[in-house]
TrEMBL record:
Superkingdom, natural source: Bacteria
Gene: tatB
Organism placement in taxonomy: Bacteria, Bacillati, Actinomycetota, Actinomycetes, Kitasatosporales
Family: Belongs to the TatB family.
NCBIfam families noted in UniProt: PRK01371.1-1 (NF002374), PRK01371.1-4 (NF002377)
The name this protein goes by in its record: Sec-independent protein translocase protein TatB
Pfam families referenced in this protein's UniProt entry, alphabetically: TatA_B_E (PF02416)
Membrane topology recorded in Swiss-Prot or TrEMBL: Single-pass membrane protein
Length: 152
């Protein structure tokens, strides 16, 4: 309930409580506060039970914490019915990025005229394509498609 209260804040609250209520009335105030908290919890639990009874037997395992979207999603993703953990473990972003950077750096070092013409003319070229060179199929790729104002 009070997980985010640090030790310094707790000491400050205790000192303020002693100053405000006095050392002789403080135990009575603490008992009253604890009794009030217990009554609020009991009221909350009875309200939850009443709601569960009104919803019927199909909602007997309904948890009110599931109304929080984060908890609901976490609960359903932890089941892993879709195999998301396999996908997550099989995909290594660092490895993929390293491969891409290696391919880019090797393309920059292979940008000599003889190697770029050989890779674009052969078609396979080890899987690398020179993107800086225009295609040699005879079509003019500088023409842009007409602008359609109605499509935007």
């Amino acid at each position: 309930m009070f997980n985010d209260i640090g030790p310094l804040e707790l000491v400050t609250i205790i000192v303020l409580a002693v100053l405000v209520f006095g050392p002789d009335k403080l135990p009575k105030v603490i008992q009253d506060v604890m009794r009030t908290i217990r009554k609020i919890r009991e009221f909350s639990e009875s309200a939850k039970q009443d709601i569960r009874q009104e919803l019927g037997p199909e909602f007997k395992d309904f948890e009110f914490e599931d109304l929080n979207p984060k908890t609901f999603i976490r609960k359903h993703l932890d089941n892993d019915d879709l195999g998301l953990k396999e996908i997550r473990n099989g995909f290594d972003l660092k490895k993929e990025m390293a491969e891409v950077t290696d391919a880019v750096h090797s393309r920059d070092s292979d940008s000599t005229p003889s190697s770029s013409s050989a890779s674009s003319s052969s078609g396979s070229g080890g899987g690398r394509v020179d993107m800086t060179k225009k295609p040699e199929d005879g079509t003019d790729h500088d023409d842009r498609p007409p602008f359609d104002a109605d499509a935007t």
